[in-house]
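Side project, low priority. Logging it here so it doesn't get lost.
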Amino acid sequence: MNDPASRLRDAGTALLALRGALVAGEPWPLSAAYGTEPEADWGPREVLAHVAEMLVYWPRELRGVLTGDAATAVPFGRISTDPARIDGIAVGRQRPAGVLLDEIETVLASAIAFVGGLSPADLERRGEHPTRGEITVESGIEQFLTGHLEGHVDQMREVLARSAPS
């Protein structure tokens, strides 16, 4: 399946399907490091806070590419040290997993609608990311939304597998 909106929906559905285990595991310990350290050290609430924040952030950034000058690569995005990214995780991780999952469900629907509403011409528009350089909106969706969310679903499954009673 190559349709980005379907992949985003499927990844979101897979994450939301982990609700029972995530809620049952509360209270999850908070990670000592959640800024620019490896995300592999994040616990469930850091991952969920990040997903909730990124599902709002990246569609907004890609919309900016679409509304910018079509003749040039429109600057967009951020790097991992962006204070707003880190603050979003810091605040979000204080909320219970169930609340974060409710938020993800809401913002996921909006992200899917955005991706699903893009035309082929929209997908070819070019943006200029601070570290990844010039990329198309289609590539941005893959890197920052679909592939990104799929990776976090795998990460969450690994965290739950490690925490399961033996």
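Brief comment: The mean pLDDT is 94.
Revisit when time allows.
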